[in-house]
Amino acid sequence: MRPFHLTCTLTLTFALAASMAGADFEHPGGEVGVLLGGIQENVLGESPVIGGGRVSVHIFRLIDAEAEVSRYPLGGATSLFPATQGLFGVRAGRRFGGLGIYAKLRPGFMRFDPNLYVPNLGTRPALDAGGIIEFYSRRHLAARIDFGDTVVWYGSDIVIPPISGIGGNVIARTRHQFQWGLGISVWF
């Protein structure tokens, strides 16, 4: 099963389970947190570790606005295609006691640093769609698990050289990439 189809299936399953669960509990007004995760860049042949931060603000019943900025590689790690990712969108779902189940849809961008292999990769549009499971504590801390399909529109103007994990010169076009994350946040 392709990552996008798997992500959609899991998200719909969690959303259905959440809608059938019991009473409505108080929803956090907002969250501020950090994340550590990874992305499977199949067109570039890398799986770098991502780190960043996010802010979520409750705006309507069942809907939160969310912004996330991430960077890879982290620390002293190396990547042939280092980048910054910005995602700005919504998450929809509910909190049931100490458990929150959400679906997410966040458009944004991938800003690639100049590099030896594709110096003009630049900024490319992206869309992150997937699911979120959060575990809330009474001490206003939350742990979060994200999973999704990050679609990047590389375009037909970029040729990925043989250095990548997919072989010879390849026109990147649009690529689906599995992305996951683990995070902690403070909710209020």
SSE arrangement:
Elements: H1 3-20, E1 30-39, E2 49-60, E3 63-72, E4 83-96, E5 99-112, E6 123-136, E7 141-160, E8 170-187
Antiparallel strand pairs: 1-2, 1-8, 2-3, 3-4, 4-5, 5-6, 6-7, 7-8
In short:
With 188 residues, this protein is mostly beta strands. 10% of the residues lie in helices and 60% in strands. The chain is built from one helix and eight strands.
Account of the 3D structure:
This protein is mainly beta. The chain has a single domain, classed as Porin (Beta Barrel). The protein contains 1 helix and 8 strands. An 8-stranded antiparallel barrel has the order 1-2-3-4-5-6-7-8. Strand 4 and strand 5 form a beta hairpin. The model is unreliable at 15-25 (pLDDT under 50).
Keywords:
elongated; 1 helix; 8-stranded antiparallel β-barrel; Porin; mainly beta; 188 residues
Segments where pLDDT lies below 50 for 5+ residues?
15-25
The CATH topology is given as Porin
Which overall shape is indicated by the principal axes computed on the Cα atoms? elongated
Number of strand segments: 8
In N-to-C order, the SSE pattern is HEEEEEEEE
The percent range for helix content is: under 10%
Gyration radius (Cα, Å) is 17 Å
Characterize the largest beta sheet: strand count, sense, and whether it forms a barrel. Answer: 8 strands, antiparallel, barrel
CATH architecture: Beta Barrel
Compute the average pLDDT.
85
